Amino acid sequence: MKTRITELLGIEYPVIQGGMAWVAEYHLAAAVSEAGGLGLIGAASAPPEIVREQIREAKKLTDKPIGVNVMLLNPNAEEVAKIVIEEGVKVVTTGAGNPGKYMEMWKNAGVKVIPVVASVAMAKLMERAGADAVVAEGMESGGHIGEATTMTLVPQVVDAVNIPVVAAGGIADGRGMAAAIMLGAEAVQMGTVFVTAKESIVHSNYKQKIIGAKDIDSEVTGRSTGHPVRSIRNKMTREYLRLEKEGASFEDLEHLTLGSLRNAVMDGDVVNGTVMAGQIAGLIKEEKSCKDIIEGITAQAERLLKG
Ligand code: TUI
Hints:
The strands form two sheets. The protein has an eight-stranded parallel β-sheet. Helix 6 links the parallel strand 5 (about 110-115) and strand 6. By secondary structure, the chain is an alpha/beta fold. It has helices at about 5-10, 25-35, 50-60, 75-85, 100-110, 120-130, 150-160, 175-180, 190-195, 205-210, 235-245, 250-255, 260-265, 290-305; strands spanning about 15, 40, 65-70, 90-95, 110-115, 135, 145, 165-170, 185-190, 220, 230.
């Protein structure tokens, strides 16, 4: 399946792995890239030198391109932005903000820039700023989300820009991928399904929470603070939503979730931790290798698109 995205990135399949905090570390990124997609190291809020190490470790495991996701709410984003260049990374995606101030630096260094956007306005702004492509991410996604759904956002972004569009949010099989392509996308970005991949280092409790989830098992917390986050319902989300309803302060809400994603991913605390995952979790039934995930999904999409 060749598209402008496979050409741009020099990858075999039009599949990008999400830049998930704590989850998108070098084992997963290297496995996705080895399987012919684009693996990403999620810099999230990691100390910049850890990101450098992660890039170097990934490169030991694969000669294929890997990218880095720069999370723009990170106070260290600028340092990470520079490390990406120093380490010779060829592709960057960004999340949770406007990467405008890093664009010139990245473009001058020959880095391909693919901002994740949640609106048409941001997509147009990114195209004008020199982005090579955009990821249009719907609110079905796990983690920090916008307002629009993938079904509505992708075709509107496709019509608004000339650069290639990657669809994200709610995609975990070949039907979703085929649908995204019918909406005009030239690749998909998937997160939740890669959390459950065999090569993912995520605690088995977290993977089981996704595999056991039903369609309506996620919640969006943080709407009141302006940072809405989707995760699987548990004691933490119930408590968070209760506090939000009572008008709790930003500090109290922060206190509840401080370190909670790490605790879920690394220690398997899926009761008080934050189990970020998308609405498509209900479709995911088993742990598979990255190769099986990517080849299975693209083969199914190709069959559907031909038929
Ligand atoms: O970034 C994500 N997903 C994330 S980041 C993250 S870490 C975090 N944890 C807790 C609270 C907040 C963040 C977990 N999941 N996805 C990409 C994405 N970007 N979704 C939405 C956006 C976005 C939103 C606003 C992109 C640009 C934007 O622009 C606003 C502006 O004008 O700056």
